[in-house]
Amino acid sequence: MNPPSPAIVAQNAVRSLPRWIMLLLCITYILAGFVGREPWRDVDIAAFGYMQAMAHSETSWTQPLIDGIKPDVPGILQYWLGAWALRLLPSTMPADVVVRLPFMVLLALALLCTWRAVFSLARTPGAQPVVFAFGGEASPTDYARALADGGLLALMACLGLAQFSHETSHTLVQLTAVCALFFAAACMWWQPKLSAAAALLGMLALALSGAPSMAMFLGLGAVAMTLCVQTPKLQQRYSWAAWWILSMAVAASAAWLLGLWEYRLINPWQQGKDWQSIARLLMWFSWPAWLLALWALWRWRGQLVHPRHNSHLAWPLWLWVIAVFCTICTMDGDRSLILALPGIAALAAFALPTFKRSLGALIDWLTLFFFTISAITIWVVWISVQTGFPAKPAENIQRLAIGFEPSFSLFSFLVAVAATIGWFLLVAWRTRRHRAAIWKSLAVPAGGTVLGWVLLMTLWLPMLDYARSYTPHVNAVAHVIPRDVSCVRTLGFTPALTTAFRFYAPWQLQRGITTATDAQCNWLIATPAAWSAVDTETAAQWQFVQQVTRPTERKDNLLVLHRTP
Question: What's the rounded Cα separation, in Å, for the pair 95 and 86?
């Protein structure tokens, strides 16, 4: 027999969060980070380069190359999405903006799938609150809607979601695919047709984005859930199990045909894993939702020993366990851990109906203090950079970002002011009107995270672009090479560096050094490591001109050379 539910919720505690507030939070969170910024270093701009090469038919769509170099990151679906956008949308639109549009849709789908998944799990019999002797307990639909609101707020409150969910990379594709599988397994008995489509597409997308092994593990968990969960709502168990197996087979076959099966597991005790870094990553990445998730596991511990009757705990916990295993046993720990966030957010939502008033108030005050101090810090640094007072933050910025020239954007300033005013209104609205709502403990963390992200993407965006994009480095190299030069050779460039020079510089790039004296490209840009490997006879044909250092990283240098007459 299933133990009594720890959730004690009255009807007045399941008031729905106004839809316009939820939509405003989601839209603001999606737009901030995708709109207005430049392509950032490494993964983001490298993906942009492969997308452009595909769209312009400069490389294969199944084996993309830039100057003969394969992508460093797994997967291929992310490049297809950007290339399709470049081909379908007008060429007059900025290319770096066009490739972000499908990823904005992916982030919206991830948020929507998480909400629907928590809503469906909260309607299962094992997740229902205690029935009062004289009535007045929360109705199942209102209870599920309130928990779904809490789950979505918990997902947006996770600090680790912000950066990776706003990149045009495989990480966001994998996150959306996991959210689709989360939705499919949770909604099988509520929305069978939509769940079947989400299961197939999510499994295929996860495999094509470079995680076929994780797709198989999640598929096996879904099969076990289909066959073992006890609920009268789920009909045709064996048909559903067969569908999940078929989806797994389709995804595995597609990954095999495209050569996406790679063995990437490592022994964390022998291959350089820093356990202190992993511990810090586990603590801050899903903060503060993981604390609520652990509290939920403790309060629902009696139900955990009966997973057949409590899919609302078993399925999110399975997502969490698989993602943490990949975090520990692969090199890309943070990009694997982001796939645990939907499960952690769902568990955090089921902690809400078990809170006492004192614990909820403690969470509110701690998060209110933390995010208010963070917002004040962002504003103080921005004011210092703009006005020089106080002087210390501006001095630190100039020391860390040599040559940075601050600029003022009225639009960004107004957006930051509006977000700050919205933060104070949210706090006042939460404390004055919906005191009894069970999602109240996550309203402040989610709003604070959105506020911090918006302030970073408006007030600090010029500084972040200066530090994280290739623009300053490319401009510094361009000042060394004469303006009438139209062709430049490169040596030792990564795909990200090649894309940056093609996007920001006016030159035609040719890879490698030729020994022919009639070569048209008489200027060379090389990395120090690649130039040190050049033989003496070839190096004698080139004269060193200048070493150009990236303003925000003194160890990142490029050598500019000119062919000797």
Answer: 7
Burial 199-238 (b: 16+ CB within 10 A, else e): bbbbbbbbbbbbbbbbbbbbbebbbbbbeebeeeebeeee
Nearest to 39 by CA among 555, 453, 474: 474
Q: Residue 434 pLDDT more than 60?
A: no
The DSSP output letter for 490 is E
Q: pLDDT tens across 39-94, in order?
A: 998 899 999 999 999 999 999 999 999 988 999 999 999 999 999 999 999 999 99
Whole-number pLDDT of residue 29 = 97
- Please give the model's pTM, rounded to 2 decimal places: 0.95
User: What contacts 24+ positions apart, CB below 8 Å, involve 335-338?
Assistant: 335/164, 335/170, 335/171, 335/174, 337/160, 337/281, 337/282, 337/285, 337/286, 338/160, 338/161, 338/164, 338/165, 338/171, 338/174, 338/175, 338/285
- For the chain, the average pLDDT equals 91
SS3 266: coil
- The helix/strand count (H/E) of the chain reads as 26, 5
Q: Summarize pLDDT for 93-147 with one digit per residue, the tens.
A: 999 999 999 999 999 999 999 999 999 999 998 898 888 867 778 888 999 999 9
The set of long-range contacts for 218-225, using a CB threshold of 8 Å and a minimum separation of 24, is 218/178, 218/181, 218/318, 218/319, 218/322, 219/181, 219/244, 219/245, 219/247, 219/248, 219/251, 220/248, 221/185, 221/315, 221/318, 221/322, 222/181, 222/184, 222/185, 225/185, 225/311, 225/314, 225/315, 225/318
Structure tokens belonging to residue 293: 């998730």
Residues 6+ apart with CB under 8 A from 263: none
Distance CA 126, CA 210 (A): 35
Element housing 525 (H / E): strand 523-526
Tens of pLDDT, residue by residue over 458-513, are 999 999 999 999 999 999 999 999 988 989 999 999 999 999 999 999 899 999 88
| Omega cis (within 30) before 390 | yes
Q: Tokens 């490319």 correspond to what residue?
A: 474
Confidence of residue 339 (pLDDT cuts 50, 70, 90): very high
Kind of pairing between the strands at 523-526 and 508-511: unpaired
CA 114 – CA 109 distance, rounded (Å): 8
Number of neighbours of residue 242 by Cβ within 10 angstroms: 13
Where residue 492 falls (left for φ over 0; alpha for ψ -120 to 50; beta otherwise) is left
User: What pLDDT, on a 0 to 100 scale, did the predictor assign at position 118?
Assistant: 97
Q: How confident is the model at residue 515 (pLDDT cuts 50, 70, 90)?
A: low
- Alpha-carbon dihedral angle through residues 444, 449, 450, 455, given to the nearest 10 degrees: 120
Q: What is the Cα–Cα distance from 407 to 386, expressed in whole angstroms?
A: 8
How far apart are the C-alpha atoms of 244 and 96, rounded to whole Å?
Answer: 37
Q: How far apart are CA 104 and CA 261, in angstroms?
A: 27
Q: Choose among 139, 152, 225: nearest CA to 189.
A: 225
pLDDT of residue 362: 81
CA 171 to chain centroid: 6
